[in-house]
Specification:
9 strands, transmembrane helix, alpha+beta, four-stranded antiparallel sheet, DUF6708 domain-containing protein, DUF6708, transmembrane, extended, 39% helix
Length: 314
């Protein structure tokens, strides 16, 4: 079955489900109301429930509903695969509003100069204070937009190591305070504690669904952390296929090497320049891309140090 026919079949099943609810509501209002209440009050298997949760994806041992295929894919080897998560910012559009805000912040200086010529400085002191506060706010906004454009990575990588059965989540901690230091962290999770859910996004510029992974305490369904595996798109089927891809890859099963899309959909800039914004810690970078040594627990640190050393040329 082709991809287009699969997509049509999936959409048809969604239409049939909605039609069934409407038909039941018209023919048997009481039964229809019961069905709607069950739909609206459904809950996730993983508690506390993540924000804007829609439904849980199949467990790792029940992933046959959709064919496996990644939406985007940076690299795929026997040891690891790397999936990018893109941010829907208007990167090129950051320059103009930040520059415009910066220039506008100096416009009121002419008014400030006229107030000083009046000679009665104390009379205008409250207005002068408000002027400086507004000017500082505009300058901070311009600096924030410049900082987002220059420092924020266009894509955030997530690595799945097949041999170690671990997930390495790269996170860029952007803050609304432009003068604070924006840091990066890498979280490492055991794959057996990671589960997939679909979450919804409702907003002016960010509408659709996300593939969100919840991290539970070992052996339980208690959520202790979460991260986004695939950013907002409108196709739930493709999110389910990406989850199927990840599950099959970790299990050592064959997966398609070609994703749905290639390249970065949010920018056309040089990939080499963008790659410089991603700085994995050296040991984590090596660990996430390699097979563990035979005596892993005892020799892991020494093994990573040896891998980090440059190899002599022949």
């Amino acid at each position: 079955m082709s991809h287009r026919s699969e997509e049509k079949s999936f959409q048809q099943s969604e239409i049939e489900t909605s039609y069934k609810l409407v038909k039941e509501d018209l023919e048997n209002p009481q039964q229809g109301e019961t069905m709607k209440q069950c739909f609206l009050t459904r809950q996730s298997r993983y508690q506390p429930q993540v924000k804007l949760w829609e439904y849980d994806l199949p467990e790792k041992d029940n992933i046959q509903e959709f064919k496996p295929r990644a939406l985007f894919l940076n690299s795929l080897t026997e040891e690891y695969c790397e999936l990018p998560q893109f941010y829907p910012y208007l990167w090129g559009g950051m320059w103009f509003p930040s520059l415009l805000t910066f220039l506008c912040s100096f416009a009121p200086f002419s008014l400030f100069y006229m107030l000083l010529l009046d000679g009665n400085f104390l009379k205008w002191l409250p207005g002068i204070i408000m002027f400086f506060l507004g000017w500082l706010l505009l300058m901070s906004l311009a600096y924030y937009m410049f900082k987002v454009y220059l420092l924020h990575p266009r894509e955030i990588p997530i690595r799945l190591n097949r041999k170690r059965k671990k997930v390495y989540v790269y996170q860029y901690n952007k803050k609304y305070n432009p003068y604070a230091k924006w840091t990066t962290t890498v979280k490492v999770h055991d794959w057996q504690d990671v589960y997939g859910v679909i979450t919804a996004r409702v907003g002016r510029y960010d509408q659709g669904y996300r593939l969100t992974c919840v991290v539970c305490k070992p052996g339980t369904k208690e959520v202790i952390d979460e991260f986004v595996l695939v950013g907002t798109i409108g196709n739930i089927k493709q999110l389910s296929e990406t989850w199927n891809f990840c599950c099959r890859y970790i299990l050592g099963m064959k997966v398609p090497e070609t994703p749905y899309f290639t390249g970065n959909p949010t920018t056309s800039e040089d990939p080499a320049r963008l790659a410089k914004l991603i700085k994995w810690p050296l040991e984590i970078d090596i660990e996430s891309r390699t097979t563990p040594p035979p005596k892993r627990r005892r020799n892991e640190k020494q093994y990573l140090q040896q891998e980090a050393q440059p190899q002599p040329e022949d």
